[in-house]
Specification:
With 76 residues, the chain is mainly alpha-helical. The protein has 3 helices and no strands. 14% of the residues are buried.
Length: 76
């Protein structure tokens, strides 16, 4: 989770990712940020984030992103 928080902080250091739960719905992250985030997560955690995971619910909070990462790791 620490690595994920570091990635998120690099994308937008002004956001409190520990409490924010509307990253997508609240337009905190834009499409460029999402592409960057997906790339960084894929590289850092050595996972492939397929199209079925690219839904707003998986990116609305750090907890949701972390849960997605763990699910993908279990499947691979």
């Amino acid at each position: 989770m620490d690595e994920l928080m570091e990635i998120l902080a690099e994308i937008n250091p002004d956001v409190d990712y520990a409490t924010e739960d509307r990253l997508i719905d609240g337009k905190v992250l834009d499409s460029f940020s999402i592409v960057t985030l997906v790339t960084e997560i894929s590289d850092t955690f050595d996972i492939d984030i397929g199209p079925k995971y690219l839904v707003p619910e998986n990116f609305n909070s750090a907890k949701a992103i972390w849960a997605m990462i763990q699910q993908i790791q279990q499947e691979e």
